[in-house]
Design a protein that fits this description.
By secondary structure, the protein is mainly beta. About 10% of the residues lie in helices and about 40% in strands. Strands 1, 2, 3, 4, 5 and 6 form a 6-stranded antiparallel beta sheet that branches. A 5-stranded mixed beta sheet has the order 15-21-22-19-20, sandwiched between helices. A 4-stranded mixed beta sheet has the order 10-7-13-14. The longest helix has 11 residues. It is globular.
């Protein structure tokens, strides 16, 4: 499947996941960091995706993995979860997560995260088990073409408490373009500001540029107040992208209205810019707007 996007999430490394498109023959290759021993990976193509695979690595060896995209169109969704200790909020690793009646069982990684892909739309019963904790069974609704996110707090077995589950549904399109991956790692490292559709719907701003200036410190419209252009002292204009395309004429407000926006990324300097938005003319940073 040429153009299918392969996502590789390292199990033991604090590094951003890799997103790489397959070539014309459906193949992709990746050099594994020398200290990586395991990774979780899956493939996405439009609204379809493969089930996740666990790959282990040995120094100097080549590992081949086949990912089969489940062509269920808009009939399936994805479940992305994190398991935490209800008392300490620490991640719970190696907890077994599954949907009742389906054979796939996945273990949480060091951050307590797991992914279940290709899940048929509808109501399922999520099961999470870990030695030392009370088992969890909780109904989960999977929407067609969307990613449902859950945060689970397991209770240590000796305590008489109920498990806690919080759910949220992500925009599938934003998942495909990598917005949520960049948001996770950008907020973790402090490199970037991210605005979601939920925040836009809650505030109902009149313009995209005005909302960015209100939500992100150090902004003057879509210019960086902390950097100036020459001796004029004027704020430094930032590069503007709409759905990954650089706008070279006019501002973002001429092309999109706030209710059409699914997410906004703001990077206030070249050091924080992801590779796809970097360049020699990006010293003032960039504002990246994605439509729903």
């Amino acid at each position: 499947m040429p153009g299918a996007v392969v996502v590789v999430r390292w199990s033991e490394l604090v590094e951003m996941p890799v997103r790489q498109a397959a070539g014309v023959d459906g193949r992709f290759s990746l050099c594994v960091p020398e200290d990586a021993r395991e990774a979780t990976l899956w493939a996405e193509f439009g609204d379809d995706s493969s089930e996740q695979a666990i790959a282990t690595f040995e120094a100097g060896a080549t590992r081949e993995v086949v990912l089969r995209v489940l062509s269920e169109g808009m009939r399936s969704g994805r479940l992305l979860g994190q398991v935490l200790d209800a008392l300490t909020d620490d991640p719970v690793r190696t907890a077994a997560a599954s949907l009742r009646g389906r054979p796939l069982v996945v273990d949480t990684n060091r951050q307590g995260r797991f992914v279940l892909t290709g899940v048929p739309a509808g109501v399922h019963e999520l099961e999470v088990r870990r030695i030392g904790y009370a088992p969890l069974r909780h109904p989960i609704t999977i929407d067609r073409g969307l990613t449902t996110e859950v945060q689970i707090r397991l209770v240590p077995a000796p305590l008489d408490m109920e498990p806690i589950v919080a759910t949220a549904t992500r925009i599938r399109r934003m998942e495909i373009v990598g917005f949520y991956e960049r948001k996770h790692w950008g907020e973790l490292t402090g490199l970037g500001h991210f605005i979601t559709a939920e925040e836009i719907d809650r505030w109902r701003p009149s313009s995209v540029s005005g909302f960015v200036a209100m939500m992100v410190p150090g902004m003057s419209g879509l210019a960086n107040r902390r950097m100036s252009t020459g001796f004029s002292g004027q704020p430094c204009p930032m590069k503007q992208y709409l759905d990954g395309i650089l706008l070279r004429g006019g501002g973002i407000d001429q092309f999109v209205r706030p209710f059409e926006v699914g997410g906004i990324e703001v990077y206030k300097g070249p050091a924080s810019l992801p590779a796809e938005f970097a360049g020699s003319d990006a010293r003032c940073g960039a504002v990246v707007v994605w439509t729903r």
